[in-house]
Amino acid sequence: MTASALDILAQHKLRKTAVRAQVLDIFLNSREALSQNDIEAHFNQVDRITLYRTLKTFEEKGVIHKAIDGGEKLKYALCLGHCSEHAHDDHHAHFHCDQCGKTFCIENMHTPVVQAPSGYLLSEAYLVLKGTCATCV
Amino acid sequence: MTASALDILAQHKLRKTAVRAQVLDIFLNSREALSQNDIEAHFNQVDRITLYRTLKTFEEKGVIHKAIDGGEKLKYALCLGHCSEHAHDDHHAHFHCDQCGKTFCIENMHTPVVQAPSGYLLSEAYLVLKGTCATCV
DNA sequence: TGTTTTATGCAACATTGTTTCATTTGGTAA
DNA sequence: TTACCAAATGAAACAATGTTGCATAAAACA
After folding, report:
1. Cys-Cys crosslink for A106: which of A10, A93, A112, B126, Cβ 3.0 to 4.6 Å?
2. A112-121, A126-135, B13-22, B110-119: which has the highest mean pLDDT?
3. H helix intervals, chain A
4. Percent of chain A that is helix, strand, coil (3-state, to 5)
5. Does the C-beta of A49 come within 7 A of strand C?
6. Which of A122, A124, A128 has the CB atom closest to B126's CB atom?
7. What digits encode the pLDDT tens for the residues B72-91?
């Protein structure tokens, strides 16, 4: 798994550093979207500013995307490979569990094709589901 | 318009106070969803804690609902009358303008009927559109 | 009017987001 | 391998937002 973390960094032409590799490993081993706080919990010790910038860089470079879940916290999830710099293409739905607060990507559910109101220019659409996840039911 | 603000308070069995009436007036005169910061800007002077609690109370009582727009800030919009205490029923889409940052309710666009993944229990669904609004085009 | 209940305002604090700057490290070319 | 340059890191500091406790003020109601 460490190998694929380094692969991802190489693919996106990002420098290989310990923090970045570890952050990617955490994402690779997680089925749900993670907040910065979630990620910090996986580290023994990490500078939160570095982590903040790591996530920001990853998001800009198309490595991770924001998982909009209607919750308070900003969460990220790994992009599936269709994303590139400044051109995210993660139009799948996200499921937010009201019990445990976790957010899951639902890869096979895509946002519906909708038409923006007249005069509006649509660029992206998100579909957010809320309820109770399989483990909390 | 002050009359209807007081009407709303009465309907929800909330005490009529100056701050609450004024907050409702602001919502009644606004076509877009408002963050706490937006609301503060309409006041000459207001205690931000009071405002925070006013919004929280309104949300709990079904007067306003959170407008999930995928942006950083939490925004609220007036409920249309189908909401009650702890039972929000605002399943219309929200449009977030990337230019001006404003969020509009699209009353006539409803979230699609979706089926949660097996094992998951769906309670609500949100549809968020992003792009450029009519005035920013 | 007086009593009870609730809202307000203030203080204080936690969390998150963000920038600046000096230092360290990774990548690369000599 | 070494040396250099660009980029990443870590520390400090600050802004904005979210949140609670408590004393006081105001609303609701008898």
Report:
1. A93
2. B13-22
3. 2-11, 18-28, 36-42, 48-60
4. 30, 30, 40
5. yes
6. A128
7. 788 999 887 555 555 555 56
Nearest CB to A133 within list B72, B109, B120? B120
CB pairs under 8 A between A and B: 108
Amino acid B84: pLDDT: 57
What's residue B1's pLDDT? 43
Q: Which of residues 58-87 of A touch strand C (CB under 7 A)?
A: 73-74
Name the one residue in this structure whose structure tokens are 């920001």: A56
User: What is the β-pairing status of strands A121-132 and A92-97?
Assistant: parallel
**Is the torsion defined by CA of B96, B100, B101, B107 positive or negative?**
negative
Phi then psi for residue A123, to 5 deg, are -115, -40
SS3 per-residue string spanning chain B: CHHHHHHHHHHCCCCCCHHHHHHHHHHHCCCEEEEHHHHHHHCCCCCHHHHHHHHHHHHHHCCEEECCCCCCCCEEEECCCCCECCECCCCEEEEEECCCCCEEEEEEEECCCCCCCCCCEEEEEEEEEEEECCCCC
Q: What is the pLDDT of residue A86?
A: 53
Torsions phi, psi for B114 (to 5 deg)? -125, 160
Going by C-alpha positions, the residue among B65, B72, B36 that lies closest to residue B51 is B36
Q: Determine the distance between A136 (CA) and C22 (C1') in angstroms.
A: 48
pTM for the model: 0.84
